[in-house]
Write a structure and sequence with these properties.
Distance between the termini of chain B: 33 Å
CATH topology of the domain at 2-164 in chain B: Rossmann fold
Low-confidence stretches of chain A: 1-30
Shape of chain B: globular
Helix content of chain B: 10-25%
Mean pLDDT of chain B: 92
CATH class of the domain at 2-164 in chain B: Alpha Beta
Structural class of chain B: mainly beta
Oligomer: heterodimer
Largest sheet of chain A: 4 strands, mixed
Order of helices and strands of chain A: HHEEEEEEHEHEHE
Radius of gyration of chain A: 16 Å
Low-confidence stretches of chain B: 1-19
Number of strands of chain B: 30
CATH architecture of chain A: 2-Layer Sandwich
Radius of gyration of chain B: 23 Å
CATH superfamily of chain A: OmpA-like domain
Distance between the termini of chain A: 43 Å
Mean pLDDT of chain A: 86
CATH topology of chain A: 60s Ribosomal Protein L30, Chain: A
CATH class of chain A: Alpha Beta
Strand order of the largest sheet of chain A: 6-9-7-8
Strand content of chain B: 35-45%
Shape of chain A: globular
CATH architecture of the domain at 2-164 in chain B: 3-Layer(aba) Sandwich
Largest sheet of chain B: 6 strands, mixed
Number of domains of chain A: 1
Number of helices of chain B: 6
Helix content of chain A: 25-40%
């Protein structure tokens, strides 16, 4: 519903909804059930390392903590990595466009590392994981709206070999 | 055209004939100074020779046009229409008839002459106070003909300096990131151009992502971030020779580089295990020093011009804010306390102000505050813009702005803009491609 308003009224509404989503205490499910709070829960951009093993986890605005859903995804990745011990991975951390370039590079690095830490607690050696931050340089969705931003705040696990 | 009426001129023309024109660039709201830029006169033989060498019909007029454009872009001057000029360039250069120039309301007049002497371009020019009937500047210099655009910039700098009492910023270059392609697969190249957009050159091919180039304030070296081999690292590039090298040997991502004011160190962030701190590397002895040691993100460092302090942004108070510390990392103080987030602090070359990007309620602002955090002033507001860089005289900021035609992200473009410290004279800086991350060089002729 918010999305259709954005499309109709452009940036004015966009700014208003942004203020809502930026407020930490506001927990609303929005945008056709694809976001919880402002964390993306859809499958639009998601690819799979193997059947049932999603390649990415999503974050709230300016946050680096893993959601329950993210931890579940990472446990699946860890299980898959344990089975495929020859595979090394790069965790690519990303931020949305609403931040300064350099801060977002640091934020992407921190997001990828929170995914890395979680994989390590599930038995994956740090030797098999490298981390690469793209900041806001490689969005998957070029839109300027809360849904697009939520898809872009992510850490993606990519096979390195 | 609004800026013309808002601009910042204070013209002092007392009755005494030795009192000459001055332009006050510290304030807003006055009208630009009417100035006549008479074409540089040129003898027939020189004109023919320059035409052969430079493929320009009349190099005298071409150089004058550069001066005129610079003066106009500054917002401080109103170059008058040449059609109204009553005196020919060659005669005006010898002895201006001030009544004629007064008649067309010129308050200042630039005249000059260009000749080819021993394969060199020789230029002489004069700045005149029309009402007082006095010469204010007279200067001659010689250079290789291919430098003809710089001749126009140097003349502008001398005129600006004489009329405002401050050094100019016209004989300078901008290094920036040229962009093309969709936002999801943006191709970025390092590029460099003269301050007025001419002589554009690409320095990298676009095979790897490059970000945040910054000039060494003392020479033509540049530091920037490259994703060469998918390893984001700070590089040092000599733009004269094309030689480049990785800065330091860090086991992880280095980013957000800048030079120290003496050009001898690079200050940057190093990210490891989810934490970014600030480090310096001495370019002579390669010694690396850790400046901050804090579990928060510390990045975007910038030295004060005396090298004694560093401003940076950090989220140690939960959200991104601006801090100042001693150059050894001691005595960290938060200076931004307004609503919203603050980033990209960059110290003015004059030392008095710090320019920044502010994010508040979904808008981005470019602003300035004093080094103690007081006197915050927002210069420009937009949906998305960031990364101010100072002109070498600390009077103008260049930054980049992204625009889209709708929230779906269509019609995306990124362009460079400049704005005066006063908040007036906001202007698009023309670039061949989309552009971001501008950095202004020091004066080349210094």
């Amino acid at each position: 519903m918010i999305l259709s308003k954005i499309l109709k009224n452009g940036f004015l509404i966009l700014v208003a909804s942004l203020v809502l989503s930026a407020c930490a205490t506001q927990k609303t499910t929005t945008t056709m059930g694809q976001m919880q709070g402002d964390v993306y829960t859809g499958t639009d951009s998601v690819e799979y390392l193997a059947s049932g093993v999603p390649d990415r986890v999503f974050f709230a605005t300016n946050e680096t903590v893993l959601t329950t859903a993210s931890r579940e995804t990472l446990r699946k990745q860890a299980a898959w990595l344990r089975k495929n011990s020859g595979v090394n991975v790069v965790l690519e951390g990303h931020a949305d466009e609403r931040g300064t370039r350099e801060y977002n590079l640091a934020l992407g690095e921190r997001r990828a590392n929170s995914a890395k830490d979680y994989l390590m607690t599930y038995g994956i050696s740090s030797d098999r994981i490298s981390v690469l931050s793209y900041g806001k340089e490689r969005p998957v969705d070029s839109g300027s709206n809360p849904l697009a931003w939520s898809k872009n705040r992510r850490s993606v696990t990519v096979k390195a070999n | 055209m609004l800026f013309r009426y808002l601009l910042l001129l204070l013209i002092l023309l007392p009755v005494k004939s030795f009192a000459l024109i001055e332009v006050d660039i510290t304030r807003g709201n006055l009208s630009p100074l009417p100035i006549a830029v008479s074409p540089l006169s040129i003898d027939e033989k020189s004109r023919e020779n320059f035409k052969k060498i430079l493929k320009k019909e009349n190099i005298g007029s071409e150089i004058s046009a550069i001066v005129e454009n610079n003066l106009k872009q500054s917002g401080l001057f109103n170059p008058l229409n040449k059609d109204a000029f009553l005196q020919n360039a060659d005669i005006a250069n010898l002895k201006p008839r001030f009544e004629d120039w007064n008649l067309i309301k010129a308050q200042a007049l630039i005249t000059g002459k260009v000749t080819l002497v021993d394969e060199k371009l020789r230029v002489e020019f004069r700045l005149w106070d029309v009402l007082a009937g006095k010469e204010m500047v007279a200067l001659a210099f010689t250079t290789v003909p291919s430098n003809w655009r710089r001749v126009g910039h140097i003349i502008t700098d001398k005129v600006y300096e004489r009329l405002t009492g401050e050094s100019g910023y016209f004989d300078t270059r901008i290094i920036y990131v040229a962009e093309e392609g969709p936002k999801t697969k943006r191709i970025k190249k390092l590029a460099i151009m003269d301050q007025d957009g001419f002589n554009n050159k690409f320095l990298t091919l676009g095979n790897e992502l490059v970000l945040t180039p910054r000039f060494n304030p003392t020479n033509q070296m540049v530091t920037y971030l490259s994703y060469f081999r998918n390893l984001p690292r700070v590089y040092l590039l000599d733009i004269e020779t094309g030689m480049q090298e990785v800065v330091g040997d860090f086991p992880g991502m280095t980013f957000a580089p800048r030079f120290s004011p003496d050009g001898k160190k690079i200050i940057m962030s190093f990210a490891k295990d989810g934490n970014s701190d600030i480090y310096t590397m001495d370019l002579e002895n390669r010694i690396v020093e850790r400046i901050t040691n804090h579990p928060s993100i510390d990045t975007s460092p910038s030295y004060s011009p005396d090298g004694k302090y560093i401003t940076f942004n950090s989220d140690r108070s939960k959200h991104q804010q601006i801090y100042v510390m001693n150059s050894n990392g001691k005595n960290v103080k938060r200076i931004s306390f307004g609503n919203g987030l603050y980033g990209t602090p960059v110290w003015s070359p004059r030392g008095d102000l710090i320019a920044f990007t502010k994010l508040h309620k979904g808008k981005f602002y470019i602003g300035v505050m004093r080094a103690d955090g007081t006197g915050e002033r927002l210069l420009t507001e937009n949906f998305y813009q960031e990364a101010p860089s100072w002109s070498p005289n600390g009077r103008v900021l260049i930054f980049y702005r992204e625009t889209k035609t709708n929230s779906a992200g269509e019609g995306f473009s990124a362009k460079l803009w400049s704005i005066d410290l006063t908040g007036y004279n906001e202007k698009l800086v023309k670039t061949e491609t989309d552009a971001s991350d501008p950095s202004w060089s020091s004066l080349l002729s210094n």
